[in-house]
Amino acid sequence: MIPNLAIADAIRAFEPKTKLAYLGSYKGIEKQLVTSAGLPFESISTGKLRRYFSLENVVDFFRIPLGVVQAFFKLGRLKPNVVFSKGGFVGFPVVLAAWLRRIPVVIHDSDAIPGLATKLSAPFASKIVLAYETSRMELNRYEDKIEMMGNPVRLSLFEGSAQRAKKATGFTGERPVLLVMGGSSGSQEINTLVEHEKKSWTEHFDVVHVSGHAGHAGAKTKALIKKEPHYFELAFVDKGMNDLYALASLALTRAGANTLAELHALQIPALLYPLGTHASRGDQVANAKVMALESPLFVVANAGRPALAQLLALPTAADAAASASSTNTATEKIAWLLLSYAKP
Fold first, then answer.
1. Of 212, 235, 241, 340, which residue is least crowded by CB atoms under 10 Å?
2. Which domain holds residue 122?
């Protein structure tokens, strides 16, 4: 979702006259985020692609072909030069509909293990853009289509203000700032870890804790800010995530591909607690392992040890600053690739 908007922003910056449209789900917050970014939004019926048995698979079996039909007619009306898909259960019907209309399709997978939607979409894609070599190995039958470009992030990410974040949190900047995140819906594991170790953390750091919607009743409508000495908690960040990143010295987080891409682009050291295979397909575990091998800034947490000692052993933000990037080439490369299809 957010990477799509990042690429859209880059396209509009490079070629302001380019017409863009977003096809998404009837459900969720997609429409609100997309329209607030100034993009026309079209919705289709979607069914989740599950690898496990569920009675919902029966209903979704009919939703997916319905989504393909809806996307087919919407694409006929929109007449795009190219379709871009970031995967997920919304993307596949659009990819298939585009292929039926002989519209070029570019797909992107953010994870170290390609998702089911990517595997299903790959035969219909003109280009497959990947972030990790491990994904390339799993999709090697489509080698002639693959481009390695990394994960896109928002260009506004580099425009954050530590001063604005200090004003919002009340922190002075005299201490290192630990940014704790559990994803948009929160992480019970990380929230529990905060409860158990917050006292020791606040002896060394100022802590910003994004606890997620799932952590609090009613958090979907209110940020529920909680302030204590050296501790600032909010349920979610609507605007100003780039400011919190600008303030952060280090992070403790899940290992979602988008979060890792943002931390890597900003060179913020992080202790990673990936979502395990008990609750996912294992993509976060793979992401965390690969990032830890590729960069000393990322360390996969030992869940059996206190987090504090592991946090204190991370490189400092000052050590990382020398190699920090001021641009995100993945965003730019993908934007130019898509624009190449739009040129006469």
1. 340
2. 2-152+328-342
